[in-house]
Specification:
Elements lengths: L16 E3 L2 E7 L1 H18 L6 E6 L3 H8 L8 E6 L26 E9 L3 H11 L5 E9 L12 E5 L5 E2 L15 E4 L2
Parallel strand pairs: 3-4, 3-5, 5-6, 6-7
Antiparallel strand pairs: 1-2, 2-9, 8-9
Helix pairs in contact: 1-2
Bound molecules: 1-O-pyrophosphono-5-O-phosphono-alpha-D-ribofuranose and hypoxanthine.
Keywords: Glycosyltransferase, Transferase
GO biological process, one term: guanine salvage
Protein name: Hypoxanthine phosphoribosyltransferase
Length: 192
């Protein structure tokens, strides 16, 4: 049997791409993302053993990261749910506080693991955590695939961090530029 992986050097976009008015270059190939996510999942499997954690995927951007990590969670009592906040237009954070919608289960007394694709200014995760805490969970942890430490304007507690990146605008692997680019397997950064 021949195993076919979703991204090899052949499949990954090695040249620059154009999305709307901007040019992007390859920044983080899928192989790197996958190995980082594997390590994050290994750590979670250790840390959360014996618990009944509820993973909360913050849509839209986190859908690929959530799928990648959740399929590597081996705890038979793990659950996942999908919630949403409103989004950016273009490349700037609006800074508005958005309501968490789509929460159908009780969080009371639960261990919550928030899954984010990126913590940039930290405004979204700060807002999300505050809204989750209002539902009286036992504990709230945050896992983010990407972190832009230089862009943070909020002090946030991050329990699992995949990759720290510079303060450049990126697309791919769920992250968008005006709705485009979420389907890219690799992560690209803008060429200024
Ligand atoms: O730390 P911050 O500066 O708040 O940025 C991080 C947030 O921005 C993106 O979401 P966005 O609001 O673009 O919505 P989307 O997930 O639907 O793309 C991303 O998915 C994070 O949730
Ligand atoms: O760099 C980014 N790219 C796409 N979406 C984002 N949301 C916060 N930061 C980013």
């Amino acid at each position: 049997m021949k195993l076919i992986f979703p991204s090899t050097n052949k499949d990954s976009q090695m040249s620059n791409i154009k999305i709307l008015d901007k040019e992007f270059e390859l920044f983080i190939p899928y192989e790197k993302i996958r190995s980082v996510v594997e390590k994050m999942a290994d750590k979670m499997n250790e840390d959360l053993a014996g618990k009944n954690p509820l993973f909360l995927c913050i849509l839209n951007g986190s859908f690929m990261f959530a799928a990648e990590i959740f399929k590597r969670i081996t705890l038979l009592d793990a659950e996942i749910s999908f919630v949403k906040l409103a989004s950016y237009a273009g490349t700037q954070s609006s800074g508005e506080i958005k309501e968490l919608i789509g929460l159908n289960e009780s969080l009371e007394g639960r261990t919550i693991i928030v899954l984010e694709d990126i913590v940039d200014t930290g405004i979204t995760i700060d807002n999300t955590i505050k809204q989750i805490i209002a539902h009286n969970p036992a504990e709230v942890q945050v896992a983010t695939l990407l972190l832009k430490p230089d862009a943070l304007v909020k002090e946030v507690k991050l329990d699992y961090i995949g990759i720290e990146i510079p303060n450049d605008f990126i697309v791919g692997y769920g992250l968008d530029y005006d709705g485009r680019g979420r389907n890219l397997i690799d992560i690209f950064k803008v060429v200024e």
